[in-house]
Write a structure and sequence with these properties.
heterodimer; A: about 300 residues; alpha+beta; 13-stranded mixed β-sheet; 18 strands; elongated; B: about 270 residues; mainly beta; two-stranded parallel ribbon; 4 helices; about 10% helix
Chain lengths: ~300, ~270
C-alpha cells in the first residue's frame, strides 16, 4: 500500500488493555484550567516509570462544563485500577487542589458498558479539617473544601472504564526535520479526535524500545533495528535513505477511538508525502503475542 | 389509561388517613377492590368508596379532587408514580415518601415531607408548621428529595432536616432550619425570628437579610463556585429558583452554639 508516495507497511500496532478515566478541570479562565491540567498530566508519558499515561484531551466551553466556567478535559490511563486510583488521588491533591480557582468534575458518567466509580475528591475533603461541606445535586455528591483563595470545589468520584493503551505508528523520513514536521502535522490532526491522548512530549516519542538488553538490569533498551545511525552494524529495518524515525503512541478510551486517531494521524503524515521526505509508515509490535489489540495499518488506512 | 381519580363526595366529620391510597398500593387492584379499602378516620374505618367517587384505571397517576385539609398522610411512604391533589391537604403529606411525584394545588398543614427520602413534592400554595421536620421522637427530618413551595411556610421548617432541597418562593416562619443537620433550604421571601437556631450543618439561602441571633457569625461576602453548580441543577424545576444565577453572597456561619458548621447565604448585589 502506497499513499502519496509513502509506503504503508503490512504490519500492526500491538496494544494492551488499560484502565482509563476522564476528569474535567475548570477554572476562572482557560489559563488557570490549563495550569492545573498541565500539572496534573505532567510526568505522565509512559506507565513504565510514571505510573500513568495522561494528557489533555480537549478544551471545553463554559456551556460544556458542570459549573459553567471554561475548562479542559484530561484522560489518564494505567495498567491496573489500583495504580490509576492512587495516581488520580495524588495528582488531584498536588495539582488541582493546589491550583488557584481550579475545580474538578467527573468526566465519565455513562455511555460505556462497565463503569467503576473511583475517588476523585472523596478523600481530599479531609484537607478541610472538619470545615468541608458536602452537597448533593442531581444525585451527584460534591465537596466544598475551604482554601485560602476561597473554596475548592470537587465532585466526589469519577468513572473508570476498561480502555486501550499503546496504539502506535512510526514515521520514517529522509531527515530529522522532515520526520518532526510529519509528526507535528499528525499530532495536530489527532488532537481533534475525541477520547484519545498522545502521552509523550508533544505527542511524539523518539526513543522506541525493544524488549531486553545486553545489561541484565534492564528489561528494555533502544530499538536498534530502527536507529538510523546503526544501519550498517545491526540487523536494521531501515533502507539506506531513512535518516530519522519517530513514533506516535495513542491511548484511547475504546478500540475504535484509537483506530480513528491512527487513521487521522497517518493520513496527515502521508499528506506531506514522499516529496517532503516521508518514506514509510510502520508500527511497533511484539510479534502479536503480548497485547490483545492489533491495529493493522493497511486495514485502518483502507 | 386515564388517571385513577378520587373525588371527595361527602363532608368529612373527622380527619381521614389516606396513606393506603398510593400508586404502589393500588397497582393491579380493581375499582371495586380499591373502593373496599378501609381508611382510618378517628375510631371508625371507612370504605374508600363511601368517601370518594372513584374512576379511572391508571394507579400510577392518582388524582384527588375536591380535597381538603382533613385528608392526612397523602402519598405517605409512596415509592413511585404520581399523585395530584386538587383542593387542599391535611398534615403529613409525603411522609417518608421514597420516590415519585406529588403535586398539591392548594394548601397543606403540618409535617409535610417529614422523613421524605426521595422524589419531588410541589405545593402550589401555603404549608403549615414543621415542613420537612422530624416527627416527635425521630432524630432526623427530611432525608432526601426535593420540595418546592410556591407560597409561605409556617414555623420550624427544616427542623432536623438531614439531606435534600427545599425551595420556598414565599415567606418562612420562625425557627427556620432549627437543628438542621444538612441539606439546602432556599427562601425568596422573608424569614421569621431565630432562623438557623441550633443549626449544625446545611445551607440556608436567603434573598432578604435576616435578623440573626448572636451565635450566627458573619464570614464576609464571597463568590462561591458551588452556587453555579446548584443553580444549574435547579434549571428544570418548576420554581422561581430555576431563573437564579447569582453566586455572590454574604456568608454567615453557625449556629456556633451547636457545632457551627451550618451556613446562611444571603444574596448580595
Amino acid at each position: 500500500m502506497i499513499i502519496n508516495g509513502v509506503t504503508i507497511d503490512d504490519t500492526f500496532a500491538e496494544a494492551f488493555g488499560m484502565r482509563g478515566t476522564r476528569v474535567i478541570i475548570t477554572a476562572q479562565n482557560l489559563r488557570w484550567a490549563y495550569n492545573a491540567a498541565r500539572a496534573m498530566t505532567g510526568f505522565a508519558t509512559s506507565v513504565i516509570a510514571c505510573g500513568v499515561e495522561a494528557g489533555i484531551e480537549r478544551e471545553l466551553t463554559p456551556e460544556e462544563t458542570p459549573d459553567g466556567r471554561p475548562g479542559v478535559s484530561i484522560l489518564m490511563f494505567a495498567m491496573s485500577s489500583a495504580v490509576l486510583i492512587k495516581q488520580l488521588e495524588t495528582r488531584m491533591g498536588q495539582c488541582v487542589l493546589t491550583c488557584p480557582t481550579a475545580a474538578a468534575f467527573s468526566g465519565i458518567d455513562d455511555g460505556y458498558p462497565e463503569i467503576t466509580k473511583i475517588n476523585l475528591g472523596k478523600n481530599l475533603r479531609f484537607f478541610g479539617d472538619g470545615f468541608q461541606i458536602s452537597k448533593v445535586f442531581n444525585g451527584k455528591r460534591y465537596w466544598r473544601v475551604p482554601v485560602m483563595d476561597g473554596e475548592f470545589l470537587t465532585e466526589e468520584s469519577t468513572g473508570m472504564i476498561r480502555s486501550v493503551g499503546g496504539g502506535n505508528f512510526l514515521i520514517l523520513a529522509e531527515s530529522q526535520p522532515q520526520a518532526l514536521a510529519a509528526c507535528e502535522a499528525a499530532i495536530d490532526a489527532m488532537s481533534k479526535v475525541p477520547n484519545v491522548i498522545m502521552p509523550f512530549p508533544g505527542g511524539v516519542v523518539r526513543s522506541g524500545s525493544k524488549v531486553g538488553s545486553k545489561y541484565k538490569a534492564l528489561i528494555a533498551s533502544t530499538n536498534d533495528a530502527f536507529c538510523p545511525t546503526l544501519k550498517g552494524i545491526t540487523k536494521t529495518e531501515l533502507s539506506p535513505e531513512i535518516e530519522s524515525v519517530m513514533e506516535i503512541v495513542i491511548d484511547g478510551l475504546t478500540d475504535p477511538d484509537i483506530r480513528v486517531a491512527m487513521r487521522a494521524g497517518i493520513a496527515a503524515a502521508c499528506a506531506l508525502g514522499a516529496k517532503n521526505g516521508i518514506k514509510r509508515i510502520s508500527a511497533g509490535n511484539y510479534g502479536g503475542k503480548l497485547g490483545p489489540y492489533h491495529f493493522k495499518l493497511r486495514e485502518i488506512m483502507a | 389509561m386515564s388517571a385513577l381519580t378520587f373525588t371527595l363526595k361527602t363532608t368529612l366529620q373527622q380527619r381521614v388517613d389516606l396513606s393506603p391510597l398510593t400508586p404502589d398500593n393500588l397497582a393491579g387492584k380493581s375499582l371495586a377492590g380499591i373502593g373496599a379499602i378501609l381508611l382510618d378516620s378517628g375510631r371508625e374505618k371507612l370504605r374508600a368508596d363511601s368517601l370518594f367517587d372513584i374512576s379511572g384505571d391508571d394507579a400510577a397517576d392518582i388524582v384527588f379532587n375536591n380535597a381538603n385539609g382533613k385528608l392526612d398522610f397523602i402519598g405517605s411512604q409512596m415509592k413511585s408514580g404520581r399523585i395530584t391533589v386538587n383542593g387542599g391537604a391535611g398534615s403529613y403529606l409525603g411522609l417518608q415518601m421514597r420516590n415519585g411525584h406529588i403535586v398539591l394545588n392548594g394548601d397543606a398543614d403540618a409535617f409535610l415531607a417529614s422523613g421524605l427520602a426521595g422524589g419531588l413534592i410541589e405545593v402550589k400554595g401555603n404549608v403549615g408548621d414543621f415542613l420537612a421536620a422530624a416527627l416527635p421522637g425521630d432524630r432526623k427530618g427530611m432525608k432526601g428529595g426535593i420540595v418546592l413551595i410556591s407560597g409561605n411556610v409556617g414555623e420550624r421548617a427544616g427542623d432536623q432536616m438531614r439531606r435534600g432541597i427545599i425551595l420556598i418562593e414565599g415567606n418562612a416562619g420562625s425557627y427556620l432550619a432549627s437543628r438542621m443537620l444538612a441539606g439546602t433550604i432556599g427562601v425568596l421571601g422573608s424569614v421569621g425570628e431565630y432562623v438557623g437556631y441550633g443549626m449544625r450543618r446545611g445551607t440556608l439561602l436567603l434573598n432578604q437579610e435576616p435578623k440573626l441571633h448572636a451565635t450566627l457569625q458573619d464570614c464576609g461576602t464571597h463568590t462561591l463556585p458551588f452556587l453555579s453548580l446548584m443553580f444549574k441543577s435547579f434549571r428544570n424545576l418548576p420554581s422561581k429558583f430555576a431563573a437564579i444565577s447569582q453566586n455572590r453572597v454574604q456568608r454567615y456561619a453557625g449556629d456556633i452554639a451547636n457545632d457551627g458548621k451550618g451556613e446562611i447565604l444571603v444574596f448580595k448585589q
